[in-house]
Design goal:
Blueprint: E1 14-18, E2 22-27, E3 30-35, H1 47-50, E4 54-57, E5 60-63, E6 68-71, H2 72-76
């Protein structure tokens, strides 16, 4: 019996919690918190838009319903990225 070589190990990217302070993103065995203070685009969005997230490349996340894309560096160290889009 021949076995195929194992494929790439993948882990699902998902939102694990949404609170009044922000949301938790889980990907690649890592959970990251996105506060509404630092990431205001998510605050008044429907749950179905927030939970529709794709990891388009390693450490690069995209929310197509609200046209937001962020990297792990931005999520983990928002203080290093002071320029943000303004919410109207």
């Amino acid at each position: 019996m021949n076995s195929r070589a194992p494929g790439n190990i993948t882990s699902e990217t998902e939102i694990t919690n949404i609170s009044s302070h922000g949301l938790w993103l889980f990907s690649t065995n890592k959970e990251m918190f996105l506060s509404y203070e630092n990431f205001p685009w998510f605050k008044d969005q429907p749950v179905k838009y927030i939970t529709n997230v794709e990891e388009i490349s390693n450490g690069h996340y995209y929310w197509p319903d609200i046209d937001v894309d962020l990297t792990e560096a931005i999520i983990e160290h928002p203080e290093n990225f002071p320029l943000q889009a303004k919410i109207k």
